[in-house]
Amino acid sequence: MKAYDVTRLSLQSLQRYPLRTAMLLVAIAIGVAAVVLLTAVGEGARRYVTGQFASLGTHLLIVLPGRAETTGSGIQGLLIGETARELTLEDTIAIDRSPRIRQVTPLVLGAGTASWGARERDITVLGTSAPMLQIQHWTMGSGQFLPPGDLDVAQPVCVLGSVVATELFGSASPIGQWLRIGDARCRVLGILAQQGLAGGFNVDETVIMPVASAQQIFNTAAVFRILAEAADRDTVQAARRDIIEIVKARHAGEEDITVITQDALVSTFDSIFNMITAGLAAIAAISLVVAGVLIMNVMLVAVSQRTAEIGLLKAIGARRRQIMALFLTEAACLSLLGALVGIAAGSTGVWLMRVAFPVLDFAAPRWASLSAVAVAIASGLVFGILPARRAAALDPVNALMRR
Amino acid sequence: MMELRGICREYAVGGELVHALDNVDLAIQPGEYISIMGPSGSGKSTLLNVLGLLDRPTSGTYRLKGEDVSELDDDALAEHRQRHIGFIFQFFHLIPRLTALENVELPLVLAGVAPRTRRERAAAILESVGLKSRVDHRPDQLSGGERQRVAIGRAIVMQPSFLLADEPTGNLDSKSGGEIMQIIEQLHHDGIAVLLVTHDPVIGGRAHRHLSLRDGKIVGDRNGGGV
Asked: How far is B113 from chain A (nearest CA, A)?
């Protein structure tokens, strides 16, 4: 008997009982759709959370001087006499040469006073360079950010945080004006859009200057932090090792810096949400097993309803394997059709959820849809075995006597 | 040929042993036309089922075309049925969702014959039993006589040597029954051995050899009469 004939005969017997077939299809479809929908919710939540982190810069590496395991050990380090070698602009340039680093920027921080005309205000001076805008995902309100250029050139320019701009200049346009910071003067290139708090630090109340200018104001050659962005998420760890090696080579073979990655935190969340999604899939898959039990029930009824037919098939020469193949194919066709209906229904549901909650990026992972279909077919086959064996084992004389 | 030697078939019915066939010896030559008659419970159907390899004897040996088939497994028996034996039943046993043509095709499907070949053969067979215009009808669209003709088509589509008919006219009016008997006798003329179980002495009388059964034993085996 050819596979084509087995399938055709199975489909014909499914057609003969349309209501029952439809009910079973619905049972399987619900199971598959449940897997699709629940995993889409899990995946949507995962994407939302990791997306939030990504907007903070998931590829970000923060380099600080000293081998402290926790940040903010500066004072403690001073008290116990630890003298960390300071980071420099040269370290920044060296780090930038690593192919695993997309861009890097130094950071110098200090308190200062800014004045324009008669107005004066305490500010935080933030010395950095052009890549800072991208690394921190800042957006410009108006004008330009710091121009690209050599790190050690102290250009007399600055960019204002939004609060500084409004408080010093009021309604006047600051761009092009000369601002006085301590003893230095600098021309305002642009104003940041309002950024709010980021890491407990209010960017809106800062004046951003080229790093060399800031170093002149504070009379220092040191760099407070170096911010680096890895080429992509997969290279964050390699980039981290690179930074440590590069700086170690420059610091006389001493590993005296700490590199913090945000990626460690994100990947923890990532794996938590993946576990949740897998758990949801497993819960939904239980309904597929229930659908399998339903298939078994209905197939057992079908075997007893079609006893005479099975007897006839045996009388005209059907082998055991052929009878089993007919019933197993029928179960497999049912599960496959049900699974396809379920995928269609589930995808429609996911689409509706996306329309209803555009904030969350719902999407059933491919593995979930594929394994839902696989589990549906497997459960149809496994639970089809008992009825199929029963059919194959029927005694032809007794089977033919039943009509 | 079919050769039974010392065949017994016993059933346990409610704790009691029933001897449906009791030490039966029988030889059937190719091309014979045999009626099997006897009262209800005499073992006629059991004899037919054993001869048709649907049922296994409890003891004794059965040689079909020279081969001992008493000890074969289910699949080997199925293969012998497929190659040598056609069945006609009182209640037709057509598959309701298949058309006349598909019902006749079914043995060829199971045997793995290519679709085009089997369709041609099934169509030719249906034409030979006078159902050319009914090939696409389903059983519930056919009369009793027509259904039995489809069943005959299915029984002979594999070109068996033996045709086993269990009360083939038992569920038909006399006119349709007569037509069915004509077709069966035509098949006998074409060389198929026909074994006919019947209650009806008129129909049974048309055979060339008459077996009488009582209590599982052959109590009469005579030649004569017939068409």
From this structure: 8
What are the CA-CA distances from residue B8 to residues A46, A208, B26, B60, B72 (Å)?
A: 74, 108, 12, 6, 17
For the stretch B80-125, pLDDT in tens is: 999 999 999 989 999 988 999 999 999 999 998 898 999 999 999 9
- Residues of chain B found within 8 Å of residue A389, distances taken between Cβ atoms: none
Mutate which of A10, A314, A316, A321 to disrupt the B interface (most B C-beta within 10 Å)?
A316
Distance CA A128, CA A123 (A): 16
Which of B72, B109, B152, B158 best tests the A interface by mutation, with the highest count of A CBs <10 A?
B109
Residue type for position A91: D
Instruction: Transcribe A175-230 into DSSP letters.
Output: TT-EEEETTEEEEEEEEEPP--EETTEEGGGEEEEEHHHHHHHHT---BSEEEEEE
Tell me whether residue B6 is in a domain. Answer: no
Q: Is residue B138 part of a domain?
A: yes
B94 occurs within a structural domain: yes
B91 and A403: CB-CB below 8 Å? yes
* ipTM for the whole complex: 0.91
CATH number at B192 reads 3.40.50.300
| Counted domains in chain B | 1
Contact A315 B54 (CB under 8 A): yes
Nearest neighbour of A400 by CB, restricted to B75, B89, B107: B89
Domain assignment present for residue B176? The answer is yes
Q: Which of B55, B78, B95 sits opposite A319 (nearest CB)?
A: B78
Q: Which residues of A touch B87 (CB under 8 A)?
A: 315-316
Note whether A322 contacts B106, CB cutoff 8 Å.
no
Tens-place pLDDT, residues B7-43:
999 988 888 888 899 989 999 999 999 999 999 888 8
Alpha carbon separation from A221 to A215, A218, A247, A298, B125 (Å, rounded): 6, 9, 16, 82, 104
Where in the sequence is the domain holding B163, given as residue range(s)? 31-57+75-223
CA angle A28, A31, A35 (to 5 degrees): 140
